[in-house]
Amino acid sequence: MNNSKNSYLPFLLLFIQPIFMASNLIVARGGVEYVPPISLAFWRWTAVFLILLPFTYSSLKKNFKFVKQEYKRIFFIGSMGCGVCGAFPFLAGQTTTVTNMGIIYSSSPIFIIIISSLFFKEKINLLRIIGLVSCLIGVFAIIIKGDLSLLIGLKFTIGDLWMLASAIGWALYSIYLFYWKTNLKIFDRFTLIAFFGMVSLLPFYLIEETFFVRTVFNSDFFMWVLFAAISPGIIAFTLYTMAQKKLGASITGFTLYIFTVYSAIYGFLFFNEQLEYYHYLGTVLVFGGVYLVKKKSKYEKKT
Description:
Blueprint: H1 2-21, H2 24-30, H3 37-62, H4 64-92, H5 98-105, H6 108-120, H7 126-143, H8 148-152, H9 158-179, H10 186-211, H11 219-247, H12 249-252, H13 255-270, H14 277-302
Helix pairs in contact: 1-11, 1-13, 3-4, 3-10, 3-11, 4-9, 4-10, 5-9, 6-9, 7-13, 7-14, 13-14
């Protein structure tokens, strides 16, 4: 009985984790009115590091030899997951549309599967491909609002290249987080990932502060930074790591599609956006696609 429950827990995390990850939408829609975007990303990961450090300092000090062994890898993971994925979408938003950003970012799980297959010999099976296609169609239905003319009329700009780089960055973060084994505990490594993410964002932050807009350190700043650090930061990234340890990089990447569904729900709850038929259609296709991946995974364990 307990083993059965434990086997379903990682798949349950696929649906729980995006609840917190999608709360980043609330930050993106509300927080940037009070805090410049790159500043918000930089201070978010600074806050994550400062919140975690008191709880992980003793363990990191005790295992400093492992930190020295792994810091280059952790720097790469942090710069991809927190740096590239933290700064590049903001750069993309200056010259491209939200629709383009959503469609391009939804390609990340495809890159995860391709890179995992090419470099780590992860198997790609037919049912997983069907599940992937189902998720993609569901996401597209939500993004283009069920209107194919919106998809046909899309125009691509230099910002789309920034967004493509961000999608690849998330794929690399996901893959190497799973395949680069560590001697550090989850929160120990996450503390270092946040630190190196902060370091990788520092140049972007200084450019924004110097040439564009300066940060005002008031109550709104602290509220949005703390929310971004805790909900789509510490909680979301921790749950993602936990799910990935059990399911692998490719399957866990499907959380990005569920993220799109929850983003639509948050828009309805907090920003008075209406839920239309295409939201429901997209939700069914995404959840159905994840179910197919889950079902195939269970079959593979038996054979």
